[in-house]
Amino acid sequence: MTLRPTILLVAPTFYDVSYSINPWMDPATWARDPRGMHRHARASFEALRQALEAAGFAVEVSEGAPGQPDMVFPANAAVVLDGKAVLARFRYPQRRGEEAPFAAIFEGLRARGLIDSVITLPEGCYQEGAGDCIWDAQRGHFWAGFGPRSSREAADAMSQHFGHDVVALELATEQSYHLDVCFCPLAGGEVLYYPPAFTEAALGALRARVPAPLRIEAAEDDLRHFSVNAVNLDDQVVMTRTTPHLRAELGRRGYRLHEVDLSPYMLSGGGAYCMTLRLDRASAAARRADAA
Length: 292
Ligand code: ARG
What we know:
Blueprint: E1 6-10, H1 27-32, H2 34-54, E2 58-62, E3 78-81, E4 84-87, H3 93-96, H4 99-111, E5 117-120, E6 133-136, E7 141-146, H5 152-162, E8 166-170, H6 179-182, E9 183-185, E10 191-193, H7 200-209, E11 215-217, H8 220-224, E12 231-233, E13 236-240, H9 244-252, E14 256-260, H10 263-266, E15 277-278, H11 284-291
Parallel strand pairs: 1-2, 4-5, 7-8, 10-11, 13-14
Antiparallel strand pairs: 1-15, 3-4, 6-7, 9-10, 12-13
Bound molecules: arginine.
């Protein structure tokens, strides 16, 4: 099955910031003007959809579920590669109610031929989807974050399910609670990352695999703008409004930025990548089988 670059989004109908499970989440600010915030969130969502389409993606929009505001972050719903979706298991009770509605969404995608198979992980191991398990198309392996949310064992489970190497990186801070907050592989082989987010061992593993000229170090200001949390397709990059530093650095390397005001989602600790899930990613092995 070959899909064009396709992204799943979840509509913000039930979005709000009403609890706090990461240090960026700010329910008090949301509560000061919930209607205004929601209006802003809907406008930001539309702007994101348009930016993704302008960058070359087909966009699928699913409905969320009442009482599950963080479903707007489908990056956490599953890991998808070669037509296979492995559904997430959430660490916090606040998000566990997303597992059933996301399972239904993935069944629907399977029925429509957008996914071939849907797999459920055994209980007792946390894995928060593509937010903590990122496919590196240039290197042909996953990078998995663990610590604040996903368990270390989840990295091995992913390796077994997909038949590809998984390089596990321990996250050292609650600020970078998912790998996608502090780590982003790009199409040219570069890796955009925020060094203080990682343990020494994780930094060693990262630097052993990515040579210095391909490492783009984000500054704290870049992290606070959720600029590392970016969506990349070839030379196109979709992200929140970024910093002069990253705008210049990515521009110098030939990337074209689509910047979107995602401030209502940053209030929940999310940026552009968290709000998306790629459905079409294929490993080289699968692409060869497809062509045969
Ligand atoms: N409020 C959500 C949480 O704490 C934000 C998730 C953002 N997703 C991500 N992949 N970083 O779980």
